[in-house]
Amino acid sequence: MQTLYREFTTQAQIDAQYNPSLGLSDPAAPGKHFVAQSALARATLMHTLDVPYGPTLHETLDIFPTDALNAPVFVFIHGGYWRALSSKEFSGVALGLQRRGITTVVVNYALCPFVSMDEITRQVRAAVAWTVRNIAQYGGDPQRVAVGGHSAGGHLTAMCLQTEWARDYGLAPDPIKAALCISGLYDIAPLRYSYLQPMIQLDEGVIRRNSPALTAQPCATPTWFTWGGAETTEFARQAQTMHAAWQAQGNHAELRAIDGANHFTVLAGFEQPEGELCHWLAGQLGL
């Protein structure tokens, strides 16, 4: 039988690996949790919403500053497989970070199929560049800007690490102090044969341009490639493949799962200041 990708011969097999809602007793529960945590963050933390970083209506940032001046900064890129959700469902990542003294910037971007994956990558890179240039206005330290994201946001974080910052934006070659790639997709080829294809509309060119595991390049940014220990074998393999490609370029990276977490609960490490994700970022940012 002909294979679609690696050992997979049917869409159902690929969907079983890449649709993390399939194994949940209540598929709506993660979304409800994220909305509740985001409402709590906006009710209790200082914030400025919908700050434009680009020319289109979707290109906005939600900024959650700390009380301290010159605070380190974390730019968070949300998931949703490039075709769902927004910054507003992920305000909750600021809950633990703010208490660790880290200003949080949550990126909003346009979604497929309204725009292409290439355009989403461009928007997210522009958001990071805007943050480096402008975060001092919100008390942030532009020399200590970390970037991270979850699922599709993990993919977009890896794409940011492979940006020609000096050539395209006039910034330092590696302006990102640390990067956190959580449950990311780094070889997007299997998604062409998944339930996502009608929305994300992959072809060979899109796959080649937007698979960071295939185009890794030297980068000085310390990075942690992580995923939930209870996720499928393909999410683990995605992180392992990216880590191997990263190390092959002489880059520094950690490869370590978060024990017991699934694709959604892996983000719990942002909700409390002692969470594993908060702790790692604080160490990288000098706190």
State the gist of this model.
It contains ten helices and eight strands. With 287 residues, it is of the alpha/beta class.
Descriptive tags:
Rossmann fold, globular, eight-stranded mixed sheet, 287 residues, alpha/beta, 34% helix, 16% strand
The end-to-end distance, rounded to whole angstroms, is 54 Å
Structure classification: alpha/beta
Strand fraction: 15-25%
Unreliably modeled segments: none
Q: What is the approximate shape?
A: globular
Number of helices: 10
- CATH level-3 fold name: Rossmann fold
> Would you identify the CATH H-level superfamily?
Alpha/Beta hydrolase fold, catalytic domain
Indicate the percent of residues in helices: 25-40%
Spell out the helices and strands N to C: HHEEEHEHEHHEHHEHEH
CATH A-level architecture: 3-Layer(aba) Sandwich
Tally of DSSP β-strands: 8
Description:
- By secondary structure, the chain is an alpha/beta fold.
- It has a single domain (46-284), classed as Alpha/Beta hydrolase fold, catalytic domain (Rossmann fold), CATH 3.40.50.
- Helices cover 34% and strands 16% of the residues.
- The chain has 10 helices and 8 strands.
- The protein has helices spanning 11-18, 29-44, 94-99, 117-134, 152-161, 165-169, 197-200, 204-209, 233-248, 276-284; strands spanning 48-52, 60-64, 71-77, 103-107, 140-150, 178-182, 223-226, 253-255.
- Strands 1-2-4-3-5-6-7-8 form an 8-stranded mixed sheet, sandwiched between helices.
- The radius of gyration is 18 Å and the shape is globular.
- The model has no long low-confidence stretch (mean pLDDT 97).
